[in-house]
Design goal:
28% helix; binds NADP nicotinamide-adenine-dinucleotide phosphate; alpha/beta; 10 helices; single chain; Rossmann fold
């Protein structure tokens, strides 16, 4: 099968190449998935370059390989079809459309992937395309984790979303609107109309204005960019408002345990979150934003583009065709 090989930490052109790899065989509790679509996310490029938030370098290297990547095929998110199942598999049948994330197992940048049936993937309804399914995952799961589960955002509240045009921002705007909150989105001039089209009630163009200039205060500030430290957030938050920082280093994460003004951590992935997300996408409450689609053979170009940090929503990898 065609696959991406991740040979070292570094620049896309040094770290990634297309190879012929052996097609995996499912174990008794595993499902063999023919992958149609995948993504290159901010998480994928951080991992490839070993460019993780301060303090997480050693931990990440211990999980993914100290001197070179232990997992040789990168990629987390996939949408595809079940091609074979192990003899103990009961949740899926051959021919099912499925989508989800392989998490730290990686391996999604390939024509085939094997995962335990209990991993974070679910059935895909026919009316959701493979590209839309895969593009809903990264931002969708992150938004569900932080806004719905941790912040318990709801009607009557307001939220400022910094980095509103990225994968997390585009999903967060739509989830916040679905939950009944008022949304102010922060992005550059060229993306203002785009985030309005996703439901942002108010916008801040960070090229021309200061976020603080409106004097509005918020129940929550979601910072996906990493340039609103706690001290800056104070003037933006209501008395009991909270900063949701998703780019914190280890020290900030540890100190947040004792700081009630801050929500932090790492987004979870589960079948339950995916089912909630599937309902949002199926009902048209969340439209996955797709910026570009690259064929698998252009994986290096896809990584270079995501590395720029300016994508609008998601970058999809088309694995078939
Ligand atoms: N803790 C967790 O569990 C977790 C989960 C998911 C993601 N993350 C992290 O969250 C971050 C964001 O992820 P993502 O997928 O949304 O990234 P992304 O899609 O690459 O974000 C790109 C967007 O960021 C915007 N941006 C860049 N500089 C900005 C600035 N100064 N102010 C406002 N917006 C700016 C760009 O908009 P313009 O072109 O308009 O500037 C662009 O649309 C990543 O660092 C990722 O690692 C953490």
């Amino acid at each position: 099968m065609k696959a991406v090989a991740w040979t070292k930490y570094g620049k896309p052109e040094d770290a990634l190449k297309i190879i012929d790899a052996e097609k995996p065989v499912p174990k008794k509790n595993e499902v063999l998935i023919k992958v149609y679509s995948s993504t290159v996310t901010a998480g994928d490029v951080r991992l490839r370059a070993s460019r993780v938030p301060t303090g997480f370098w050693l931990l990440t290297r211990l999980v993914f390989g100290l001197f070179k990547p232990r997992k040789t095929i990168p990629g987390m998110e996939f949408s595809g079809e079940v091609e074979a199942i192990g003899k103990e598999v009961s949740l899926f049948n051959i021919g099912d459309g499925v989508y989800g994330t392989s998490g730290v197992h990686l391996g999604a940048h390939a024509e085939y992937l094997c995962l335990p049936e209990k991993a974070a993937f679910i059935r895909k309804p026919d009316q959701i395309s493979h590209n839309d399914a895969v593009a809903s995952i990264f931002g969708g799961l992150t938004a569900i984790h932080f806004l719905k589960e941790k912040a318990k955002l709801g009607a009557g509240q307001n939220i400022l979303i910094n980095g509103a045009s990225g994968a997390v921002g585009t999903a967060a705007i739509q989830l916040a609107k679905y939950l009944g909150a008022e949304v102010t989105g922060v992005c550059s001039t060229g993306n203002i109309e785009f985030i309005k089209s996703l439901g942002a009630d108010k916008t801040v163009d960070y090229i021309r204005e200061n976020i603080e200039s409106s004097e509005e205060v918020y129940d929550f500030v979601l910072d996906t960019v990493g340039n609103i430290p706690l001290v800056r957030s104070k003037s933006l938050l209501k008395k009991h408002g909270k900063l949701i920082s998703i780019n914190d280093g280890l020290l900030e994460n540890l100190s947040a345990v004792f700081n009630k003004k801050r929500l932090r951590g790492v987004a979870g992935e589960s079948k339950e979150y995916l089912e909630f997300l599937k309902a949002l996408v199926s009902n048209g409450d969340l439209k996955p934003a797709i910026d570009r689609v690259y064929p698998l053979k252009q994986i290096v170009d896809a990584h270079k583009y995501v590395d720029e940090g300016r994508k609008k929503g998601n970058v999809v990898i088309s694995v078939v065709g």
